[in-house]
Amino acid sequence: MRRGLLIALIAALMPVGVARPAEAGPLEEGFAAWNRLDYASALRLLRPLAMAGDAEAQYLLGVMCGNGDAMAKDSKLAYMWFSLAATRGYAVAAGARSLMATTMTAAEIADAEQQVREWKPSLIR
């Protein structure tokens, strides 16, 4: 129950309803897919952006990993994506990472932090 509440809080931190440009790109399309609960499409659109270093896409993947949207729940991977987004200036991600850490063991956090240190952006989209 605590984990479900935690994920709801993390998702609630997300800026929903933010005005988006009229021309929707992959980020906007991925965000729209996530909002309409089409997680498979959101993952397909957001993963390449996150891998290329887009902080908002990284944050959204963190939420999806933490929720188990279109994938198995993975706290360590969610923590990694939140950390990467936070280091790129996406302020909400730092709070989400802290909340996620409350559900993890010290060893899980250490593993996730190792993943952050080893992560390299991919220029392939």
Order of helices and strands: HHHHHHH
Tally of DSSP β-strands? 0
How is the quaternary structure best described?
single chain
Largest sheet: none
Question: Which short descriptors sum up this protein?
Answer:
single chain; mainly alpha; 7 helices; globular
What does this structure look like?
It is a single chain. The protein has 125 residues and is mostly helical. Helix content is 68%, strand content 0%. It contains 7 helices and no strands. The longest helix is centred in the middle third of the chain and has 13 residues.
Describe the SSE topology.
Elements: H1 2-13, H2 26-35, H3 39-51, H4 55-67, H5 75-87, H6 91-101, H7 106-118
Helix pairs in contact: 1-6, 2-3, 3-4, 4-5, 5-6, 5-7
What's the short version?
68% of the residues lie in helices and 0% in strands. The protein is built from seven helices and no strands.
